[in-house]
User: Fold this.
Amino acid sequence: MNDPGSQALRAESVAYVVAPYEADAQLAYLERQGFVDGVLTEDSDLLVYGCRTVLFKMDAEGRVCLLRRDRLGLVGAAAEGAAATAMLGAEWRMDGWGDAEFRHMAVRPLPSFLTRMSMARTGGG
Assistant:
């Protein structure tokens, strides 16, 4: 690959793997097995597959948004403190969530989304 990201990694002698197609499950496996410390991606599917450290949306200057699953419970507390907890409620805290809870949260809206998509295609509702 000759994209700027690959060039920068080669310049710093950082080992990397480029996935030619959808590789979410494989990337999650590589992270779980300790072959990689995190995954750089353009979407959030890797979180549902169980990745713990995900870097999103690298820009031209190499800046990324880092998301660590072990720190998701701190988001409300760090950003807004008691105001966020009061607004979102305690049920939205992610402290101690495992893969099953995270997947349930991510997939739970799916049936209503599919119903809306079906209605949109058929001109219903």
